[in-house]
Design a protein that fits this description.
Layout: E1 4-9, E2 12-14, E3 22-23, E4 27-28, E5 34-36, H1 38-54, E6 57-65, H2 70-78, E7 83-88, H3 95-109, E8 114-118, H4 129-137, E9 141-151, E10 154-160, E11 166-172, E12 176-179, H5 191-197, E13 202-206, H6 207-210, H7 240-254
Parallel strand pairs: 1-6, 1-8, 6-7, 7-13, 8-12, 9-12
Antiparallel strand pairs: 2-5, 3-4, 9-10, 10-11
Helix pairs in contact: 2-5, 3-4
Length: 258
């Protein structure tokens, strides 16, 4: 019997802590530091946990990105993936095409038992790719999952919503799961993990070789602009009670958070 395959879709994203410079109308400086999308770290950690509890299983990280994304996949394997697949491209792609490419790579590799990904990417925050991937594969999906339990032929997912509410969904396997921050605490690699990851396989596939079918629609980033913060500090004077009342008014009438 073949091992239960757990695919984890990871994205090669710019480090949000780095200084990101916009170059041209819709590009950022490619020399900025890139890393694994932080939400995907939760997906990888959960995949390793599922392998431990429901083995024999194999964790395969999948990424659509440039050649440099091999470093991101090495990090994914240091975090627990057994091997990885890099679909090599030199272009930026929208979620419509990305989902189609990921589907082709996964189907070409094997039959998924479950597919995990971060609930969103920190660069685009589109929150669409995992749903488009599920639709292309004809699979159920759940996002912002904070607890995941596999049962016989199904997955029980607790999905956090706004206001602290939680939906509990039962999905047939295979399914697509979008990991939220509350799902786990990422298990960061030790030095031996990093050394072992260098010996693991990164299979590179040229995008053209996948024969990804063209979509009828597409999305395009027309322009990027640096985010500018215009702050006007105000000193609050008076007694502590007067300052507290003034803060309450500001939070209610100006910030509108009360």
């Amino acid at each position: 019997m073949p091992p239960f395959k757990i695919y984890v879709c990871v994205k090669h994203v710019p480090d949000s802590a780095a200084t990101i410079t916009v170059v041209g109308p819709n590009r950022i400086d490619p020399n900025v530091t890139f890393l694994i999308n932080p939400y995907d770290e939760h997906a990888l950690t959960e995949a390793a946990r599922l392998r431990e509890r429901h083995g024999p299983a194999e964790v395969v990280a999948v990424c659509l990105g440039p050649v440099a994304a091999e470093n991101t996949l090495r990090s994914a394997m240091a975090m627990g993936a057994d091997r990885s697949i890099l679909v090599v491209t030199t272009e930026e792609h929208d979620s419509i095409f990305t989902a189609r490419a990921l589907k082709c790579a996964i189907v070409r590799d094997g039959e998924p038992g479950i597919i995990l990904a971060g609930k969103e990417a920190i660069d685009t925050e589109g929150m669409q790719t995992l749903f488009r991937l599920a639709a292309n594969l004809g699979l159920p999906a759940a996002t912002n999952v904070v607890k995941l339990t596999l049962e016989q032929g199904s997955a029980l997912a607790e999905c956090e919503k706004e206001g602290g509410a939680v939906d509990v969904l039962r999905l047939r396997l295979p399914c697509v799961i979008g990991a939220g921050k509350g799902l786990n605490t990422p298990k960061y690699p030790t030095f031996p993990d990093i050394v072992r990851s260098r010996k693991k396989e990164v299979r590179k596939i040229e995008l053209a070789a996948l024969g990804v079918p063209a979509a009828e629609s597409r999305m395009e980033i027309v322009e990027l602009k640096p985010a500018l913060e215009n702050r006007s500090p105000k000193a609050l004077t008076g007694s502590p009670a007067e300052i507290a009342r003034r803060i309450a008014v500001i939070l209610k009438e100006e910030a509108r958070v009360m």
